[in-house]
Design brief:
mainly beta, 132 residues
Amino acid sequence: QVQLRESGGGSVEPGGSLRLSCVGSGRNFSDYNMGWFRQAPGKEREFVSVISWRGTTTRYADSVKGRFAISKNNGKNAVYLQMNSLTPEDTGIYYCAADGFGRTAQAISQGRIPGVSDYDIWGQGTQVTVSS
């Protein structure tokens, strides 16, 4: 089973950029659909972005469209989240998640945003703080 480890979080001023990385250890990382979620203090964990196992399909939350970009490098067992034009509302803990059962593909085909329950493996999270 894959284990996930995020990195790249930090503190940045509004308008700044960060690039989050998530590296998977274990076998068959390329078989997983991968997602990014975030959780702000006092709020529920929310979907940010998803990428299919081959990297051919992506989806974004409306709040990050046009600012964030997800990518996957199966050769490096990694998925990335490039975040630009950051605002204080982007502050939170960012989690990488893996779906090994195709639930996210099913969600997308049904026209819904993948949720927390669609993923079975989670990283520990990395803190992103956007503040002046």
